[in-house]
Amino acid sequence: MNKNMFAMRPPMGWNSYDYYDTNVMEADVLSNARFMAQHLKPFGWEYIVVDIQWYAYNTASMRDQFQYIPFGRNEMDSYGRLLPCPDKFPSSAGGAGFKPLADQIHAMGLKFGIHVMRGIPRAAAEQHLPILGTDVTADMVADPSSVCPWNPDMYGIRDCEAGQRYYDSILDLYASWGVDFIKVDDICATGFGERTFDRKHEVRMLHKAIENCGRPIVLSLSPGPAQVSESWHYQKYANMWRITDDFWDNWDTLLDMFSRCEKWQDHVSQGCWPDCDMLPLGKVGKHFGQERNTLFTRDEQKTMMTLWCIFGSPLMLGAEMTKLDTWTLSLLQNEELLRLENGYFVSRQILREEDRCIWAAVDPRTGEHYIALFNLSQQELMLTADYDECISPFPDWYFRGKSETMKEVWSGEKIPVANDAVSVSVKPHGAVLLHAI
Length: 437
Prior knowledge:
Elements: E1 12-15, H1 17-20, H2 26-39, E2 47-50, H3 99-107, E3 111-117, E4 120-121, H4 122-126, H5 138-141, E5 142-147, E6 154-157, H6 161-177, E7 181-185, H7 200-213, E8 218-221, H8 231-237, E9 240-242, H9 251-264, E10 273-275, E11 283-284, E12 292-293, H10 298-311, E13 315-317, H11 326-332, H12 335-338, E14 346-352, E15 356-362, E16 369-375, E17 381-386, H13 387-391, E18 405-408, E19 414-416, E20 421-426, E21 431-436
Parallel strand pairs: 1-2, 1-13, 2-3, 3-7, 7-8, 8-9, 9-10
Antiparallel strand pairs: 4-6, 5-6, 11-12, 14-15, 15-16, 16-21, 17-20, 18-19, 18-21
Helix pairs in contact: 6-7, 9-10
């Protein structure tokens, strides 16, 4: 199997973390899946991903003290493989795992994914549980010097044959459930502060386990920031990797994404997607004790969606979808915007100054192209994009001629091209996305 075929376009879907954190329940997953199938699937959204600690009991019961209860009770089989907690996912009882839930999601025409902490459960190592198909026990492959600084559940895995067999065993299990996507945590960048990429062998082992299981499962690496110097490793073994730490609804964090996208723009290709992280839109934050609306202004939300799409990032929505308002839903149903997520567009940053930024993207098959103008300042600006400058980073054969009129994707307004340039007024922290017509 060629892993690049698993995600020929940037994956688009929903992840439970931003709203539910550790405490999403089966009914929540299904209600969001039904909403996606009805309202978003026609626009390319298809993944439903259950995030962290789906195997843990009593999650969020000590929220005032811990996000992750230290050495809490986890559901696990006799081979040290984590299973869904039946208190949260009743259909998993009796050893059924996630298969009944995945079957329901597949029946809606969607795909199913789960969050995975890298490594092997500490409890499996402490109990000396056997690794399926071997005479080796978990304690012999666990690396107690490699632990996640924010989650207490796992040890890293040593680079050895028995360690590979353990990863093979969990991917075989996931394949039997019908899993289409795994978001693997504490692996793209590890530690706090100045994070490193020191678990390369576990990325390679997971990639091999996916190949061995026989099911096309998208491999997503988290958290960031990924290291550009290691891009070849991410591209060889994974389908998407985080270029930032957890992204939330803060303007300074969004502003920082412009420099991150510039660094990674040469490493976007089919099956290999640098990941700007989740979209904190709509209602988020229930796990912090009180749900809230995104802190981004409407213009900042348009800026985020425009940058993610013209860069070619995966799109993972973090909101409770059943509570989306009409305006937010319109962001996610903008067909002209989402054409940029077809997997073929090549994009480049054209200009970035303190108060403005310009990107351009072209589909080399058709010559279809877009120009995005971003106002990074706190006052309305008139921004101008020179047509020749916008197309100069791309080969001439990508284009079928210049456009005399461009359509603004968010407003629908027709913008004329005059003297080989286009000028538009852009609101503070806002974006204008021009589609050549």
